[in-house]
Amino acid sequence: MWAARRSLIILVVGILVGGIAKYGLLDEGEVPALSTYALDLARVRSMALGGELPLRVNAEVVAKSRVPAIALMAGNSPWVYQEMVRTAYQVVYSEGRSVIIDTGPDRQLHEELSPEGPFYPERFAAVQRAMLFAEAIVVTHDHPDHIGGIARSPNLEHIRDRIVLTREQLDNREQLDKVGYPFDTLGAVEALDYRQYHRLAPGIVLIKAPGHTPGSQMVFVKLAGGRELLFVGDVAWHMDNIEIPRGRALAISKFVVGEDRSAVLHQLRALHSLRSPSLHMVVSHDSAQLGRLRASGVLGRAFE
Fold this sequence. Notes:
Blueprint: H1 2-27, H2 41-48, E1 56-68, H3 69-72, E2 81-92, E3 98-101, H4 107-113, H5 121-133, E4 136-138, H6 144-151, H7 156-159, H8 167-171, H9 173-179, H10 183-186, E5 197-201, E6 204-208, E7 217-222, E8 228-231, H11 239-243, H12 250-257, H13 261-274, E9 279-282, H14 287-295
Parallel strand pairs: 3-4, 8-9
Antiparallel strand pairs: 1-2, 2-3, 5-6, 6-7, 7-8
Helix pairs in contact: 6-9
């Protein structure tokens, strides 16, 4: 009798511990009710004005991967897979001038990240061609699928003067070493130092958002026709992170990404509060959202 009771107790305790562990590691992703992350959108909008504003923004999908839904947001089913895209963006001005936001990975980096997902060499080549003629090349952060197109570019000598990396991004040597950042070739690139906001070009403002990485930033773009876009980088991996709002699972945030989880959750709350029909938040890896933005004309389908 006692042996059976002891086995039952062990089973119940195991279930309770497993349930608590699952909740803590996979299901708990609540964002705070109030955010400590300050994003003064009125100031950003004001900084963007002046000069000839850009006309449109294009998106180029360099690669795709499939990941368990639980990796995108806490509480999702671990058995359902969703498509993620690895994307670069081209902000286009008149007379062919442009600014590139994120650059995608090359084939080797993509296969290291997602060996099961397709890589599109012709699209990676299109990004590389566009970088040759861009006035500036920026990244939301220095993970391989965002900065890889710079680090592995065959045109380093030609694009060196167009690369704009922040002090925090260049100081993240551990991450840059992983991507094989060519310090010998690009060591002379001058780091950008700014506090909270920086006007990069007419209609484009950089916004510091450390958390996912120390050098993470968002990019605000205002077009000549009045449309506004906010590229949030990897603060969110899916628009649901912002809409609901809900963060990544602790197991992913802490043990896979190694991000400042508290900072990211506060940023998600701030972004949730800023939602409006006039502001299009662009999530780098959300395949479904990209399809909607392309269908509505907010983003073009390919680089020019």
